[in-house]
């Protein structure tokens, strides 16, 4: 018997029972119970991520969560409506920007009553509603489930009827002791060792979050003006060539190749009335993709609500960019980073301090090593200042106090034997450079490689390679080479670019 036929029989049986006179009193009782549940959960928001046949694989393949729960339901099903508040109570702990335990479990839902999801629900042999599955997110991609299937890593959750029982089931799988009463920033699973190489591997998701947040801030504050336009274009070039996330490289490229049309100089200089339309047009672009729920702050999550997060993610982004460049790009990248912070960072005091450090550099950088070490030194100077300020004001994160990096336990060889001179550390800079390039380079994206997210993407590669074609750009030599050598099929890419231009109006030139 097919799953669809089983569901039809179950539905007819339920309808027949509901219409019988004997069921009237029980139905009334069920309605009163349902009202009580709904009243008790009136403030419960939707935290579970709604998936459909087109988004199912994309979201589950890209999420940073270690495990996923997929609930198959039908919107017309009374039991499903009754169960939703319980499911959302658990989802609140794991999903969204206010997640209590982010990055561990992705809670999702699929409506089998929607025709577009029929085949997807059939693949998982959904025989009743609601039906819950558990497993690593990647194992759901292009997969299915059959009853009595041997050695399947996807499991049916057989004891999740209430929120307490569902969370208890999840706790058994994770070896955790989560509670429905847990509040944000109060869990024992936050690692206090921010220098752990295994932790930095997960920071790639925070780099994506910081990139998206920075882009949103720029749009929200209408910071793109005639005098800041060139600064943003150069930073987008840098992201396209060297961002550690492929989906951020792709998203940045899409913004970049459309930038002339969205923000032409003549409109910026003369027509301020066009801001709202331009803003709406640019908001359609997702600089790091749109499928994965954000707000995890996995590596950069503080133990207090107002610590770390975006500022940490932005620092990790800048360090990760610095270790990926070639020597010929070093001075371009230095000025690009300095100008970006000066023009687009909204914390005035932080912005001015960083710009002062940039202004103190008297000669251009000729080597990428010099830039990597300068940015590291600048970050330590910022931390030195904040250590004193936070100590006097009592605003430090108790679990993540500012430190001079790298700590001795992470890199003992970075410290020379005469480690202190006038309260200054005597660094072995060759060793510091090694750990910086490893920590913010290979280690940072190791999780991506394990999940198979790093790789060739024809459309993404095409957009990256074609960045040099837009009139708005003057790509530095190193970046141009980095983009050009990404694909050997340059002729095919050129054809792709020309085909894309057929539907585009002529670009305005800008120099």
From TrEMBL:
Coiled coil: none annotated. It catalyses: 2 R'C(R)SH + O2 = R'C(R)S-S(R)CR' + H2O2. Its EC number is 1.8.3.2. GO terms for molecular function: flavin-dependent sulfhydryl oxidase activity; protein disulfide isomerase activity. It is found in: Secreted. It is an enzyme of class 1 (oxidoreductase). The keyword Oxidoreductase applies. Keywords: Disulfide bond, FAD, Flavoprotein, Glycoprotein, Membrane, Oxidoreductase, Redox-active center, Secreted, Signal, Transmembrane, Transmembrane helix. It comes from the Eukaryota. This is Sulfhydryl oxidase. It comes from Pyrus ussuriensis x Pyrus communis. The lineage of its organism: Eukaryota, Viridiplantae, Streptophyta, Embryophyta, Tracheophyta.
């Amino acid at each position: 018997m097919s799953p669809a036929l089983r569901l039809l029989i179950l539905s007819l049986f339920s309808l027949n029972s509901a219409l019988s006179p004997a069921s009237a009193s029980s139905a009334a009782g069920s309605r009163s119970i349902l009202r009580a549940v709904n009243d008790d959960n009136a403030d419960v928001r939707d935290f579970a991520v709604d998936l459909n046949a087109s988004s199912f694989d994309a979201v589950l393949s890209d999420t940073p969560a270690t495990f996923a729960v997929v609930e198959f339901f039908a919107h017309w099903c009374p039991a499903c409506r009754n169960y939703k508040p319980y499911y959302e109570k658990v989802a609140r702990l794991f999903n969204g920007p206010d997640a209590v335990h982010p990055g561990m479990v992705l809670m999702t839902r699929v409506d089998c009553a929607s025709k577009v999801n029929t085949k997807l629900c059939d693949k998982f042999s959904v025989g009743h509603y609601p039906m819950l599955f558990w497993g690593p997110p990647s194992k759901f991609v292009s997969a299915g489930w059959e009853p009595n299937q041997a050695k399947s890593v996807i499991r049916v959750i057989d004891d999740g009827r209430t929120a307490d029982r569902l969370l208890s089931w999840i706790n058994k799988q994770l070896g955790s002791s989560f509670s429905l009463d847990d509040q944000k920033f109060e869990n024992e699973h936050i690692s206090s060792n921010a220098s752990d190489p295994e932790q930095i591997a997960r920071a790639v998701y925070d780099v994506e979050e910081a990139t998206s947040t920075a882009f949103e801030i720029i749009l929200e504050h209408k910071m793109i003006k005639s005098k800041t336009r060139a600064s943003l274009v150069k930073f987008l070039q840098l992201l396209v060539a060297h961002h550690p996330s492929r989906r951020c490289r792709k998203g940045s490229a899409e913004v970049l190749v459309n930038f002339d049309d969205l923000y032409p100089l003549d409109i910026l200089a003369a027509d301020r009335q066009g801001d709202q339309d331009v803003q709406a047009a640019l908001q359609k672009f997702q600089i790091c993709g749109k499928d994965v729920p954000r707000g995890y702050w996995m590596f950069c999550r503080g133990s207090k609500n107002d610590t770390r997060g975006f500022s940490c993610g932005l620092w990790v982004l800048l360090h990760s960019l610095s270790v990926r460049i070639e020597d010929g790009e070093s001075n371009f990248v230095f000025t690009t980073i300095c100008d970006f912070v000066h023009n687009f960072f909204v914390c005035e005091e932080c912005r001015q301090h960083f710009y002062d450090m940039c202004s103190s550099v008297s000669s251009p950088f000729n080597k990428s090593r010099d830039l990597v070490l300068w940015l590291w030194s600048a970050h330590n100077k910022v931390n030195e200042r904040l250590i004193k300020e936070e100590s006097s004001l009592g605003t430090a994160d108790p679990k993540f106090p500012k430190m001079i990096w790298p700590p001795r336990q992470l890199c003992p060889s970075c410290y020379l034997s005469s480690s202190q001179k006038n309260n200054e550390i005597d660094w072995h800079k060759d060793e510091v450079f090694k750990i910086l390039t490893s920590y913010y380079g290979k280690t940072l994206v190791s999780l991506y490689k394990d999940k198979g997210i790093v790789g060739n993407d024809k459309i993404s590669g095409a957009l990256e390679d074609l960045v040099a074609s837009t009139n708005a750009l003057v790509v530095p030599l190193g970046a141009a080479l980095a983009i050009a050598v990404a694909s050997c099929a340059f002729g095919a890419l050129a054809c792709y670019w020309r085909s894309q231009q057929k539907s585009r109006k002529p670009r305005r030139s800008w120099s």
